[in-house]
Amino acid sequence: MEHDSERIIYLDHAATTAVREEVLDAMWPYFSQAFGNPSSLYALAGESRNGVDEARSRVASVLNCRTSEVIFTGSGTEADNMAIKGTIAAVKEGPCEVIVSAVEHHAVIHAAEQLERDGHRVLQAPVDSYGRVAPDDVRQLLTDSTALVSIMYANNEVGSVNDIPGIAHRIRAYNSRAGTDILFHTDAVQAAGKLSLDVRALGVDMLSLSAHKVHGPKGIGALYVRRGVPIDPLIAGGGQERQRRSGTENVPGIVGMGLALELAEQERADFCNRTERLRDRFIAAVSERIDGVKINNHPVSGLPHIAHISVPGLEGEPMLLGLDFKGICASSGSACSSASVEPSHVLVAMGMDMDTAVGSLRFSFGKDSIDEDVASAVSALIDTVSQMRGMPSLASSIA
Ligand code: PLP
């Protein structure tokens, strides 16, 4: 049996999660016995089709929407791209205005930049020092040329949560007064399994999801598109997903996503209670035991499982390597941009100073995290920081 001190302690659940056993079991038959192409007519294909249909019903019931409003995509990134580029492509007249926040995932920011290169105008809504967007700031940016607003539900780095119903309300009020049809998209990739995804209560027209953040497989996502929203496909071909996303369906992935999301929703309250308690213990311990540490996530209104801290004067990447050496997996900034030594655009937009931003780390707890993980992570961090404080800091060379 493996010695406990050799166990890898995975505290990077905001980057990705392991596929859970029940999900793997549900996916398995669709790789082999039930391998038919859902578009074919014989009975074997019917099994794959049923798998896709059942998964779509599961996603629709978590979202409180119609099954016809769920489009399966190849990732959360593709869902974001489709929401942004697909809706603007469907607007046939003139250049449009698109509003995004300054702390969106790169899937949104870079998709918006592509629109800008095509002659559209992109405006950035500002954020506060926790990375939250004020609904009134979005309202201020709306004009009769605005076609789309895309504001994330919960941020992937610091875990801040936006008032999506508040923003939706202001866009609806503007639309009914000005006679406009401004659409509202939210990236809910980090919110799944932590916050309600009821699209009617949220008031959104589109919402992006990804399976691998909730113990589903990687390489599968979904976009909710409210009935009646005009959207052009990004991928042309055989007309799958009601002509909106061509390509033979990733049947095992879709089946896995449906079940993973359903289970995450069923366990949501329990997940939030468990991880919030672990996160708060972690924050209390590092605040007490590491001199000068800063806590960057919102004390009450953030995602329950994310602790985002900074040790000003040290760099995040060497701290991560020190933690990794001690068996702890964490993240500096978001995993998707961890190859870069620049402080993330999120922390810059929050107004964080360079020293604090460069020395930041994200610890994200999961459904199987336990008290001992907190204790091990705290002592590994204390050791790493003490070792590094015995060396000259490299942070000034980056600034
Ligand atoms: N949006 C957010 C907020 C994310 O955190 C991520 C992944 O980290 C994505 C989109 C992209 O999802 P995927 O990894 O499925 O492409």
Describe the model.
The protein is α/β, with parallel strands linked by helices and 399 residues long. The chain is 41% helix and 13% strand. It is built from 14 helices and 12 strands. The strands form 3 sheets. A 7-stranded mixed beta sheet has the order 2-8-7-6-5-3-4, with helices on both faces. A 3-stranded antiparallel beta sheet has the order 9-10-12. Strands 1-11 form a two-stranded parallel sheet. It is globular, with a radius of gyration of 22 Å. Pyridoxal-5'-phosphate is lined by residues 75-77, 80, 105, 107, 152, 156, 187, 189-190, 210, 221, 336.
Topology:
Blueprint: E1 9-10, H1 21-27, H2 43-63, E2 70-73, H3 76-90, E3 97-101, H4 106-117, E4 121-125, H5 135-141, E5 146-150, H6 164-178, E6 183-187, H7 199-202, E7 206-210, E8 221-225, H8 251-266, H9 268-289, E9 294-295, E10 306-310, H10 316-325, E11 328-329, H11 345-349, H12 354-358, E12 360-364, H13 371-389, H14 395-398
Parallel strand pairs: 1-11, 3-4, 3-5, 5-6, 6-7
Antiparallel strand pairs: 2-8, 7-8, 9-10, 10-12
Helix pairs in contact: 1-8, 2-8, 3-4, 5-6, 9-13, 10-13
Bound molecules: pyridoxal-5'-phosphate (PLP).
Pyridoxal-5'-phosphate binds near residues 75, 76 and 107.
Strand order of the largest sheet: 2-8-7-6-5-3-4
Tally of strands:
12
Tell me the Rg in angstroms. 22 Å
List the helices and strands in order: EHHEHEHEHEHEHEEHHEEHEHHEHH
Distance between the termini: 47 Å
Percent range of helical residues: 40-55%
What is the mean pLDDT? 93
> Can you count the helices?
14
The major beta sheet can be summarized as:
7 strands, mixed
Structural class: alpha/beta
Strand proportion, as a percent range, falls in 5-15%
Return residue spans where pLDDT drops below 50 for at least 5 consecutive residues. 334-338, 392-399
**Distinct ligands, ions and cofactors found in the model:** pyridoxal-5'-phosphate
Question: Which descriptor suits the 3D outline?
Answer: globular
